[in-house]
Amino acid sequence: MITTRHHPARDTVLYDGKCRFCRSQIAILRALDLTGRLSFTSLHDPTVASDFPEIAPEDLHRQMYAVDVRGLARGGADAVRYLSRRLVLLWPLALLLHVPGTMPIWQRLYAFVARHRLKIAGSCDDGTCRLP
Amino acid sequence: MWKSVFLAAGIFACVAGLELLLIDSAVVLPMDGRGDPAVFAAPDWAPWSLISAGAVTILHFCALPTGNAKAAVGSLTPEPRFR
What ipTM was estimated for this complex? Predict the structure, then answer.
């Protein structure tokens, strides 16, 4: 877990905005966030580097990060677990993710999906993800 | 008997997890009234882990065979119906 100096007003999710699969997952998270607890920022946004210099850019490319209002940044499966606690509709998933001793499984699964995320649904480098 | 132990442990873990979920911190006062009270604040993941472990234990309780079923499987010679 990384502590950042910048404390966001809301829990902030840092994701790869050029990855179609990541964008689809973020769209699902937005739909599940009924009370507006989260804000979502692409790691390609210039404010990310200035607000969260503690998180290395290569780490941001490797995994998603969730930064809470205290400035604690969790990455990868730990971030997913944190978000499952924050969103009421994800509480059934939280029970599964919190089974004691299963964290290494979730970390490996997350790392596998994150490594192959561009193969799953492609990237937006060609501009196809832009709004018209 | 073991089946009941698993059920009790599972329910206890679930209830303790729910309690931790509802409170931010607990203040433990010394028994003799002297000294500083200790403040206990559980980490964010602790209530969920307790509930989850309790649920797994209760599921294990459901999977255990009952005493009657075990006795029925274990007895090779059925008792005579009429003596």
Answer: 0.78
What is the three-class DSSP state of B29?
A: coil
State how far residue B69 is from chain A, nearest Cα, in angstroms.
30
Angle at B31 between CA B29 and CA B37, to 5 degrees: 20
Q: Cβ(A90)–Cβ(A81) under 8 Å?
A: no
Mean pLDDT computed over every residue of chain B: 84
- On whether any CB of chain B is under 8 Å from the CB of A94, the answer is yes
Q: Which residues of B touch A81 (CB under 8 A)?
A: 45
Taking every pair of Cα atoms in chain B, the longest distance, rounded to a whole number of angstroms, is 72
Helices B2-22 and B46-63, interaxial angle, to 10°? 160
Contacts of B57 in chain A (CB under 8 A): none
What residue in A sits closest to B47 (Cα-Cα)?
A98
Task: Enter the pTM of the model.
Answer: 0.80
**What are the sequence ranges of the domains in chain B?**
1-30
Structure tokens at A118: 């561009």
A36-77 residue pLDDT tens? 889 999 988 888 888 888 889 889 989 999 999 998 999 999
How near does any CA of chain B get to the CA of A100, in Å? 6
